[in-house]
Amino acid sequence: MSRRPHKNLRKGYATGACAAAAAAAAFEALLSGRFPDPVTITLPRGERVSFPLSTREKGEDTGGAHAIAGIIKNAGDDPDVTHGVEIRAKVQLRKRGGGIVFRAGKGVGKVTRPGLALEVGEPAINPVPREMMCKEITAVAKSHGVSHDATITVSVPGGEKLAKKTLNERLGIVGGLSILGTTGIVIPYSCAAWIEAIHRSVDVARASGILHIAASTGRTSERAVQRLYTLQDAALIEMGNFAGGLLKYLRRYPVPRLTLAGGFSKMSKLAAGHLDLHSRCSRVDLAGLSTHLMEMGAKEEAISALPTASTGAFLNFAQARNLPLADRIAGEARHVALDALDTDGETSDMLVEVTIFDRGGKLVGRAGG
C-alpha cells in the first residue's frame, strides 16, 4: 500500500457508517412506509452526516414484512477495496423484548476462529458498527413510539469476491467482507485497516494456541518462511511495511516465538532502526552497508564501484566473496526488534529470529532462533 500526504485528500466513510445509515433508512421505511433520502445519522464522535440511498425496497417473506436500503460506499481518496460497493441493510421487526439481532447476508463474512472481538459463528459486523446501528434503530423507534426490536441483515453484493483481496480468510472470516469502522470516517492513506488486520492476526494466533508466528514483509518471504518451518496459515502475519505496528502490539500481547521474514532491502531498513519500512518513510543506509563490507575485508575501491541505487548489488557483491553481510544485517535487525519489544527497560522473553530471503525465496541471512 502506498503512502501519500493527507493534505487536501478527501475523507470517506467506513462500511460500518454506511450499514448504520442503511439500517436507519430501512427501519424508518418499515415503520412509516417512507424511505428518508438522504438519510442522516450520527457518527461515534458526534458528527452528523447524510447518505443518499442507492436501493429502496419493501417486501415480505417467511420472516414477515421487511424493508431494504442500500448505500454506495465512498472511501474518498483512500484506495479502499470496498470503495464504490453497495452496503445493504434488510430490517424486519421482532417480537417485543427480542432486542436487536444481526445477521450476515450475502457478501458479509462469518467468524470461524477465536481471538476476534466477535464470537465464533457471529456475522463479521464489528462492535462499533453494531453500536451505531443499535443507536440509530433505537432513535427511529423512539420517534415512532414503538420498541426497537429488529433483525438487521447486512449484505454486500460481490463481497465474497472482494474478500479475497483482504486478510479475512487468514483471520478465519469466511464468506465475505467485514463491516468495519471505529469512527465511521476513513482517513486517506492512513493504513489503519492494515495495522488493525496485523493486530487481529496476532489475536487469532494467540487464541488458537499457536506458539510460533512468522511476520513477513511480502508474499515471497511469507511463502519461504512457511516452507522453512511448516507453519499453518494462522501463524503467518502479513506485516508489510509495518514492523513497528507489529512489534509494539506484541510488546503488550507477546507470543513465545517470533520470526521476522523479509528481503534484504526491507531488513536493511529495520537494521538501521526504521520501524516503518515504506520507501516514503525510510531509506536503506548504503553507507552503513559499505562499512559492513569493509569490516569484513572487502576493498573500499571495489565497494565504491557498486551502483548506489541497487541494494541488491551490495548483497550480490557479498555473496560472490562469501561475506556474511545478510547474516550481519539480520543480526542488527534482530537487535532493533528486541529493543522495540522491551517494556520499561525489561527485556522481552520472546524468542526472536530474523530471516532474509532473496527474490527466489532462498534463505540468505539469519540471526537468532
**Percent range of helical residues:** 25-40%
- Overall outline: elongated
Mean pLDDT, all residues: 92
Q: How many strand segments?
A: 18
Separation, N- and C-terminal Cα atoms: 30 Å
Poorly predicted tracts of residues: 1-6
Strand content: 15-25%
Radius of gyration: 25 Å
Question: Which secondary-structure class do the elements indicate?
Answer: alpha/beta
Order of helices and strands: EHEEEEEEEEHEHHEEEHEHEHEHHHHHEE
Number of helices: 12
Major sheet details: 5 strands, mixed
Strand ordering within the main sheet: 4-5-6-10-7
How many individual domains?
A: 2
Explain this structure.
- By secondary structure, the protein is of the alpha/beta class.
- Helix content is 36%, strand content 22%.
- It is built from 12 helices and 18 strands.
- It has helices at residues 15-32, 127-144, 159-163, 168-171, 192-207, 219-229, 243-252, 264-271, 286-295, 300-304, 311-320, 325-341, and strands spanning 12-13, 39-42, 48-51, 55-61, 64-72, 86-93, 100-104, 107-108, 110-111, 150-155, 173-174, 176-177, 185-186, 212-216, 236-238, 257-262, 351-357, 363-368.
- Mean pLDDT is 92; it is low at 1-6.
Keyphrases for this structure?
369 residues, alpha/beta, 2 domains, 12 helices, disordered N terminus
Short structural description:
The protein is an alpha/beta fold.
